[in-house]
Amino acid sequence: MASRGRPGPRSPSRASACGTNMPQKPDASGETGDAEESLRDLPRWMRLYFYGMHGVTLDVLLSSLQGLLNRRDPKLVGFSSPYLCIMHSLTHFALEKIYSQKRCFRGRPVVFHFVFYPSVFIGLQILIGNIRTLTEQVRLVSGTQLVVHYVLALYYSQVFHRGLAKLRYQPSSFNDLQAKTWPGDRGQSRRPTHSLPGVVRFLFFGMHGFLDEVLFTSVFNLVEKSDQTLSGHTSLWSFLMYGSCSFVVEKLYLHLYFSRAWGTWRRLPIYICFVYTWEFTWGLVLRQFDACSWDYSHYPHNFMGLITLLYLPGVMDGITNNQFYQSS
User: Which family would the database say this protein is a member of (predicted)?
Assistant: First the structure.
């Protein structure tokens, strides 16, 4: 993925949509065509994945802040579920289509951004909020919730959709993938050029950590407590922990793979030891302030209740996802 700083040359389809069809000058070298083909809009599956992850992040953020205001809980525990993740993917996709209709409100942007779009957004959020109570009494929405939904609608129309529209995806051909995943001489391997700023990658890693933990805890709740709602939980502190950990693991990946030419199975033990050390350190610090949201004392093979080998599959899954992101 890449962040587009400014729009490129206007394509013929855009020109015809504005009522003109200006022929473009042919480029003998073909560099213009190659550049346009190298960066594409994010594919649908990638947008749906990002939409679900972003929605889960907002669920955790809002529910944890609500717990902080009501119970003064320093653990900042928030909740979401795989059901809500799917619903967020679908509603975000619908909102994407709604946002694309803003061209129908030319000359009336205030009506679109402050009336039409927020109305659709609030309606979808009320629908999501009542997904669990479709067979029961429909929950009423308070004035405070309406205000929160309206503020979120402004965030989506003014920040989220505009930022996402700047992202571009650069698919790799087979030869590029082979060159990227088959390092040559030690220290001579080609490092990937990151177009996304470090802050954006940190946010992505943090949101992905939220999604992983919500899915993982929801499965555990289903197995241990037979909770068919698949409700999962995490903590706002986990966002900082996952974001910073994955950011450092990314640096380890670049160094071990491209500088030392280490294979996957040689790097994996280092990743696992680092992730466990990172989680233990964060948990030890948070415990001093009664802000640690996890306690593995009742699980086998735990150390001080902060880490446990029982979660090793989850750790390996997170590492695998991180490596997939690096390879894409």
Answer: Belongs to the TMEM229 family.
Domain count, the chain: 2
| pTM assigned to the model | 0.78
- Distance in angstroms (rounded) separating the CA atoms of residues 32 and 321: 34
Q: Are 194 and 152 contained in the same domain?
A: no
- DSSP string over 51-87: HHHHHHHHHHHHHHHHHHHHH--TT-EEEE-HHHHHH
Give tens-digit pLDDT for 155-213.
999 999 998 888 877 765 444 544 444 444 444 455 555 567 888 889 999 999 999 89
Q: Are 161 and 100 in contact (CB under 8 A)?
A: no
Closest C-alpha among 189, 185, 191, 246 to residue 213: 246
b/e code 87-108 from CB counts within 10 Å (16+ = b):
bbbebbeebbebbeebeeeeee
Separation CA 219–CA 215 (nearest Å): 6
Determine whether 44 is exposed, middle or buried from the number of CB atoms within 10 Å of its CB (0-12, 13-18, 19+): exposed
